[in-house]
Amino acid sequence: MADWKWQLGILGGSTTAWVLGLALLALWLIELRSIRGEGDPRRRFALAALGGLGIFAVYLLALQVTLVRETFEEVAGGTGILLDNSRSMTLSGASGPRNDAVRALVGKWQEDNRVNPVVYLFGSNTRGAIWEGLADSYEPSDDETKIREALNYVLAKGADQDLGSLVVVTDGADMSFRAETLALGSGAPAIHAIVIGGDDPLDDQAIVSLHADPTAYVGVPAVIRADVRAVGDLRETELRVQLWHESRLEQEAIAALDATGRGAVSFEVTPQRTGRALYRLLIPAASGDEVPQNNDRAALLRVGRERLRALLVAGRPSWDVRFLRDFLKRDGSVDLVSFFILRAAADLTAAPTNELALIPFPTDELFREHLGSFDVVIFQNFDYAPYEMQTYLPRIRDYVRRGGAFVMIGGDRSFAEGRYTGTAIEEILPVKLGAPGVLKGSYRAEVSKQLARHPIVALGPDPALTRQTWRSLPAMHGANVVSAVKEEAQVLLRHPRARLRGGARLPILVVGESGRGRVAAMTSDASWRWRFAADDTTVGSDEYELFWDRMIRWLTRDPLLEPARISTDRERYGIGGEIAVSGRLRDEAYRPMKQARAELHFQPGIDEKAVAVVDADVDGQLRATLQAPSEPGAYEVIASVEGKELAREVFIVEESGDELADLEAMPEQLEAVAEQTGGRVFLGIEDVPGLSELASTTRRAAGLVSRQPLSNPWFILLVVLLLGATWVLRRRWGRR
C-alpha cells in the first residue's frame, strides 16, 4: 500500500493558500489589537484563543484539503523464461553437454501445463521464442553472452506483461555483467537464476584474450600479448603457449599463473615484409582439457613501412625540384631517396670514377635491386635515354602493375619531350603522349567541376570553396602537350583555354590506375609557384603542401583517402558469429552513391554468391549483419556494386572466439540480482522445482481512494460553533 498524499482543492493551489493565510493572519492580529483594552487577562486569553481557532478553522475549510491514496491488489503474475542461446551452452562437463541439461529442464517444465510462460532467447541479442517444442528446437549458436542487455530488455517488456517472476537459465559466463548496472525498479519481478554447469566446474586451459597493435612495420619489433587462465584440475598443470607463423613454430613460453589461475605471456615479432601477417597462439591440449577449442587463437597484423619510401629522380636542378624535394625531406613520414642527374654514364672524363665527386646514375642498383622497396617513384623532368635505362622501363611498368605508384612531372625532358612515347612508361601513364610539344604562357589551373571532391584537389570543405581556392592560387607557366587522356583516367586539373585536337581542355593533372598500382601525370613544372601567396590573397604555401601530401598519400593508397570504406564491429569472431558491417560508399569522383545496391562477399568464400545484399542510404552509408563463416581462418568482407569491388575489410574467425575463451560460471552477480528481487539461485538443474513453484504474484493498480476530512458536516458545525462562541463572548463582555 502506498502512503496517503494530500492535495489542495482551492482554486490557485498553494499560491492562493499563501495569500489567504497571510490575509487571515493579518485579521487575527487586528483582533488581538482590538482586545488590548480588556482588563481581565483571562478574558483576553479566551477571546484571542477563540478568535485564532475560528480563523484557522475557516482557513482549513477554505483550503479544501483532500487526502489521496493509490490502492493495489495482489494478482497472479505472469512467468518469463530468459534462456541463454550462446555457444558456451554447447560445452560438455562431467555430467554431459549443457544444452542437453537445458532440454531436460524445459521438458520437465512443459509437463506442468498450469504455467504458460513468455520465452526469450538471448546471446548477441534478445528475441522471443515459442514455448511449444522449445525442448526439441533449442540449438544454442550465438557468439556472445550479454546478460545485462537481455535482462534490461525483458524487464522493459515485463512492465507491460505483468510479469511476477523471471527465470534466467544461463551458464553465467559473462565477465562484464554487474548486478548494479541493471535497471531494477520497485515493481521488478522476482528474478530466479539457474546456473547450468554451476555444480560441474570445467577443467580447462584457455587463451582468454589477445592484445596486439593492429598496425606493425617492416623491421620494427611488435609485441603480441596473451591473457591466459586455467581452471579446475588443470590449474596445477604447466601452461605452455606457442607462437606459430606460416605453419612454423617461432617461439614458446611458460605462463606464470596467479592464485586465481590467471596469467599473461608476451611474444616479440619482427615482420619482414609488408601486407598482412597472421600469427597463431596455441596451448598444446593437456590431458583432461574439456574445451580444447579455446586453446588456439589468432592475431592479424597489418604490416606497412614505418615511413613511406619515395624515389625522386630529377633531370636537372630547378625551382620545382627544389621545392618538392624540400617538402618531402621535411615530411617525417617520408623516407626520401633523391637524385639530381648532373652526369651521364656516357660523359667522358680523364679521371677514374672513384676519384670523381659526381658518380654515374646508379640505374642497375635502383631499378633492379631496390625498386620494390619504394612506395612511390617520381620522375621530375627526367629524360631516361642518356642513362641507358631502356631495359629498366619495363621493370618500372611491372612494379606499378604489382601495386607500386608512379608520378611524372612536366618539363622540357618529360613526357614526349623526354622520348617516352611508345615506351613501357607510356603504357602505365594515364595520358597518351604523341608528338613532342610544349605550351607557353601563364594561366591558373582549373579544377574539374565533377571531381572537386577528389582528395588531391579538395582544398576546401565543399566543391564551391575548392574551386574558389584554385582560382586564387598563383598562376602557372607552361605545360607539356599530350595527345589524349586514357579511358578510366581522371582529369583533376585542366588548362582554362588550351585544348587538345579533339576539343577537350588540355590536362594539367591526370590520375589513374594501372594494374594494382596508381599513377599521376602532372604536365606542368610550375607547382612550386603555389608555395607563394597570390596578389591580394592569403592563399598559397599551405595549399602547396596539402596538395603534394594528398598526392603522395592517395598514390600509396592511404585508407583515409579511399572513396569507399567498410569496417566490422570487431576484429575476431567465433564460428557462426554475427558480424556487424558498416561503411560509406562513394564513386570514383568521391560523390555519395545514393541508394546503391551493394553486394557483400567473403574471401575466401564457399561459392560466388553474395552473403548479403544491402541498399545504401542517401549519404551512401550502409549497414548489414552477416553470419561468420563456419571454418576458422583470416577472411575479408568485400563490398561491390554492379560487380565492381569498392572496399574490403579483414577479420578473423576462430573456433572459440571470445565466447568460449572465459568459461567460468559466475553465479555471484546473479545471486545479487536474486537477493534484491526476492528470487532464488540454483547451481545445476537437480533441485530446480516446477515453474508453478517459481511463479509469483504481482501488484496491479486498483484505483485511487480520496477523502476530504475537513469538508464533513461535523467540521463545518465546529467552525460555526467557534465563530458563534467568539461573537457571543465579545457581546457579553462589551466588545463589538
Describe what you observe in this structure.
- Helix content is 23%, strand content 33%.
- By secondary structure, the chain is of the alpha/beta class.
- The protein folds into five domains: 5-72 and 705-732, no CATH class; 78-190 and 665-695, Rossmann fold; 204-303, Immunoglobulin-like; 308-560, Rossmann fold; 563-657, Sandwich (Immunoglobulin-like), CATH 2.60.40.1930.
- The strands form ten sheets. Strands 19-18-20-21-29-28-27-24 form an eight-stranded mixed β-sheet, sandwiched between helices.
- β36 and β37 (644-654) form a beta hairpin.
- α2 runs antiparallel to α14.
Helix-strand layout with pairing:
Layout: E1 5-8, H1 13-34, H2 41-63, E2 65-76, E3 78-84, E4 92-93, E5 96-97, H3 98-110, E6 118-122, E7 126-129, H4 134-137, H5 147-161, E8 163-170, E9 190-195, E10 204-212, E11 215-217, E12 222-231, E13 240-245, E14 248-254, E15 262-269, E16 275-282, E17 296-304, E18 308-314, H6 319-330, E19 334-340, H7 363-369, E20 376-380, H8 393-401, E21 405-409, H9 424-428, E22 431-432, E23 438-443, E24 446-447, H10 463-472, E25 476-480, E26 484-485, E27 490-499, E28 505-514, E29 517-522, H11 542-555, E30 565-568, E31 572-574, E32 578-584, E33 597-603, E34 612-615, E35 621-627, E36 633-641, E37 644-654, H12 667-677, E38 681-683, H13 691-694, E39 697-707, H14 713-732
Parallel strand pairs: 3-6, 3-8, 8-9, 9-38, 11-17, 18-19, 18-20, 20-21, 21-29, 31-37
Antiparallel strand pairs: 1-2, 2-39, 4-5, 6-7, 10-12, 12-15, 13-14, 13-16, 16-17, 22-26, 23-25, 24-27, 27-28, 28-29, 30-32, 32-35, 33-34, 33-36, 36-37
